[in-house]
Specification:
The protein is 37% helix and 27% strand. The protein contains nine helices and 13 strands. The strands form two sheets. Strands 1, 2, 3, 4, 5, 6, 7, 8 and 13 form a nine-stranded mixed beta sheet that branches. It has a four-stranded antiparallel beta sheet with strand order 10-11-9-12. Strand 3 and strand 4 form a beta hairpin. Helix 1 crosses helix 3 and helix 2 crosses helix 4.
């Protein structure tokens, strides 16, 4: 390995349009890769750094965990440059995109890149950080387009990820072009710690959560058929019905509810998503400009997104 060796990889953010991306969820789910990319450039260095700062377990936990799982020679320091390409770090799937791009660039440095291995290592990184999210975001960051997870292996199987007694089978899913508008509140602090609320609910109400997941699975099965039929209006309705189940988790704040009402007129379907502490809305729409203007008028911030067809890109 030459001393000037370097590698770069880019991975898309993503969100779960149908079903749930939780480790405890055992039903059908669909995750879509968005055209919002995170790029990681890794090179040999004198010290372990992230964007010029010393790599710190508290400030850069996922990069550090990716290093531990993906770097073969810990005696040879490497530097990481994370470029979010103007994507805010509270966009859904951002953390998974960071992990996949970091692991992939490290694998290229090691001259060994197998997508299934990256997916498994990524799952280990997230679970090691006590993250309760499943592998859908990670798989979408690698595969692009859309990911279908099911309890049984079927056609277009990419890989299977085991979590205790639960095996999540990951498939490639062909979907039509779609446009989404993400709606963010003007002030992040109004959302509270959404991730902590979800995790707490699942831990406290496991029996009730199973019922929510069963209902969500039924909606996801109908949504999967609607996607195959290219019926976007039905997809949107089922997306919104799934969102109503999400309200039971107690993570909708009054501000987010108001923003959802604002989006309703120009949205085919709305889903509350979160990344880390921050909650926001993802809207399926055929009127992105009108919807974006309404979000701005309401004091929020819109972000228009399409589908990333390529997934992981090696630069």
């Amino acid at each position: 390995m030459s001393q000037d060796r370097m590698a770069s990889a880019s991975a898309p953010c993503s969100f779960t349009i149908l079903g749930y991306n939780y480790l405890d969820y055992r039903g059908t789910a669909v995750n879509i890769a968005l055209d919002k990319m995170v790029k990681c450039t890794t090179r040999l260095s004198d010290n372990f750094t992230v964007n010029g700062e010393a790599l710190d377990a508290n400030r850069h936990p996922l990069v550090r965990a990716s290093l531990i799982h993906g770097w073969s020679d810990i005696d040879k320091p490497v530097s990481f440059e994370i470029d979010d390409m103007n994507v805010p770090d509270n966009v859904c799937g951002y953390q998974s995109a960071v992990v996949i791009s970091a692991l992939s660039s490290l694998s290229m440095m090691n001259d060994h890149l197998i997508f299934e291995d990256i997916a498994r290592k990524g799952s280990e990184v997230l679970q090691g950080s006590q993250n309760f999210l499943g592998p859908l975001d990670l798989s979408a960051a690698i595969n692009g387009s859309a990911i279908l997870s099911t309890r049984t292996a079927g056609n277009n199987l990419l890989w299977s990820i085991e979590n205790g007694a639960n095996t999540i089978n990951i498939h490639n899913l062909d979907i039509p072009d779609m446009t989404f508008v993400l709606g963010f509140l003007g002030k992040y602090e109004n959302t509270g710690n959404v991730s902590a609320k979800v995790k707490s609910f699942i831990n406290r109400q496991r029996g009730f959560t199973k019922d929510i997941f069963k209902d969500s699975n039924k909606l996801a099965e109908k949504g999967l058929k609607a996607l195959k039929d290219r019926d976007m209006r039905k997809v949107g309705k089922l997306m919104s019905k799934t969102d109503k189940l999400t309200t039971i988790l107690g993570i909708y704040t009054p501000e987010l509810k108001e923003l959802a009402r604002t989006c309703g007129k120009h949205s085919l379907g709305t889903r509350l998503c979160f990344e880390g502490q921050h909650g926001f809305l993802v809207n399926l729409t055929d009127e992105p400009e009108k919807l974006s203007n309404r979000i701005i008028e309401a004091g929020g911030r819109p972000l228009v997104a399409g589908i990333s067809r390529d997934g992981l890109q090696l630069n």
